[in-house]
Specification:
By secondary structure, the protein is an alpha+beta fold. Helices cover 41% and strands 19% of the residues. It has an 8-stranded mixed sheet. Strands 13-12-14-15-16 form a 5-stranded mixed sheet. A 3-stranded antiparallel sheet has the order 2-4-3. The longest helix is centred in the N-terminal third of the chain and has 20 residues.
């Protein structure tokens, strides 16, 4: 007899049982609703692309984590590491049909062969939204508004959308005299929340080869991320003069527009340390942190990428957008005990108990009357003892039980039991949907 295979998952990959998959689907649906409310339309692209489509777009570090291999046709292929690069390829291929500006959202798994940590996996889902075909700052501002609306809809109250502009960063590098090392410098600055001042200083001096005075000036600039007053930060950035003027103007317009639109600007922070490690960003950049759990990193990031599509077409296709990291967000929700993680292993709040297999059709009729009313309902498949069925309901997370035996069917009534409060009532069958909804809607 063959030996059994040990059931296990690869490092950096995970299974999702119902208690996690149910809130995960809720997060995806919430993101979908928010994106659509701003006019973003859905698209999808393949998980696998020709390697040349993906490589060289996010920088050397990005290329190192790409899952790349030869397929059965001996083609050089790779799994997508994000949804932005495939979208740039998609836009270059289809934009003449789609027209510009084109607003899209996409949701799906991506793969990165990198070191794992809390909330960081090698396979994870992203929920992207992007506008392509315009350089207008209005599109950048809308990204901030969508992120704001998204986290409000996700029932998070303590978060910060940190915003910077690559034009500001490039201007500062120019003023310091290190613009020729911009890619390496920005990747190092992007690690400030993870490895701190000393860690970034060491990388700037030992890896990027800046001298001590250059690294100190750069870190002094980045250290303004500690200032929550965006107006003060912008005033400080003004001191760098013309090299940063355009980037500062776009940031100031963003902040003013958000305020005028009636959004809470305390959730927005202009942060000079935000760099975004990917090389393709050219303008406004975004990172969103949960203030109750900052160590988990950014849970929604993005920015402007004006040259990415030019790798696939001569047509000018500037873009801007952001991505929600679903799996990292779920890891944060687990740690923060977010109210969406109820532990329920069923999406159906109601369980119809089975007292007699001969009445299975009657039980399914009761269940269907609730389903038609928009209430998820499950029928227990066997006529087991009531104690066993109640135990099942408790384990699965059902909120209400419907109970009917011969006496109830003869009287055209049913019992409904609130499984949380342990309260039971007898109602006419005709009132089942209304009474059930009233119980389920109680706080």
């Amino acid at each position: 007899m063959a030996s059994l295979i040990e059931p296990r998952t690869l490092k950096g990959f995970r299974d999702y049982p119902p208690a996690l998959m149910i809130p995960r689907e809720r997060v995806l649906q919430t993101a979908r609703n928010v994106y659509r409310s701003y006019g973003f339309a859905p698209i999808d692209t393949p998980a696998m692309e020709y390697a040349e489509v993906l490589l060289g777009k996010g920088g050397e570090e990005s290329d190192r984590i790409v899952y790349r291999f030869k397929d059965h046709g001996d083609r050089d292929v790779a799994l997508r590491f994000d949804l932005t690069v495939p979208f740039a390829r998609f836009a270059a291929q289809h934009i003449n049909t789609l027209g510009t500006p084109f607003k899209r959202y996409a949701m799906g798994p991506v793969w990165r062969g990198e070191n794992t940590s809390a909330g960081r996996y090698r396979e994870f889902w992203q929920c992207d939204f992007d506008t392509i075909g315009t350089t207008s700052n209005a599109a950048d501002i809308e990204v901030a508004l969508v992120i704001y609306s998204l986290f409000e809809a996700l029932d998070f109250k303590n978060y910060k959308i940190r915003i910077n502009n690559r034009l500001v960063l490039n201007g500062v590098l120019l003023s310091i005299g290190i613009v020729d090392k911009s890619a390496e410098v920005l990747r190092a600055i992007d690690k400030l929340p993870k490895i701190g001042w000393d860690g970034v200083k060491d990388e700037l001096e030992e890896v990027v080869k800046l001298d001590a005075s250059e690294s100190y000036r750069l870190l002094q600039f980045a250290d303004w991320h500690k200032n929550d007053d965006s107006k003060e930060v912008l005033a400080f950035l003004d001191s760098f003069g013309s090299p940063v003027e355009l980037g500062v103007r776009r940031l100031r317009e963003l902040l003013d527009t958000i305020r005028t639109a009636g959004f809470d600007t305390s959730k927005i922070q202009i942060d000079p340390s935000i760099a975004r490690g990917l090389d393709y960003y050219t303008g406004t950049i975004f990172e969103t942190f949960l203030t109750d759990l900052p160590q988990i990193g950014s849970v929604c990031s993005g920015g402007r990428y004006d040259n990415l599509a030019s790798l696939y077409t001569k047509q000018v296709l500037p873009g801007v957008g952001a991505s929600l990291g679903v799996d990292r967000l779920l890891a944060a929700m687990e740690e923060l005990k977010h109210p969406w993680l109820t532990g329920a292993a069923t999406p159906a709040p109601v369980l119809v108990l089975n007292l007699d297999m001969a009445r299975l059709g009657d039980y399914q009729k009761l269940a269907q009357s609730l389903r038609v009313a928009g209430i998820g309902t499950e029928v227990f498949p066997e006529a087991k003892k009531l104690g066993a069925q109640f135990q099942y309901a408790e384990k699965r997370g059902h909120k209400l039980a419907v109970i009917a035996g011969d006496a109830e069917f003869e009287a055209n009534t049913v019992k409904i039991k609130d499984l949380t409060r342990r309260e039971e009532q007898v109602i006419p069958v005709a009132d089942l949907a209304v009474a059930t909804r009233a119980v389920l809607d109680r706080p």
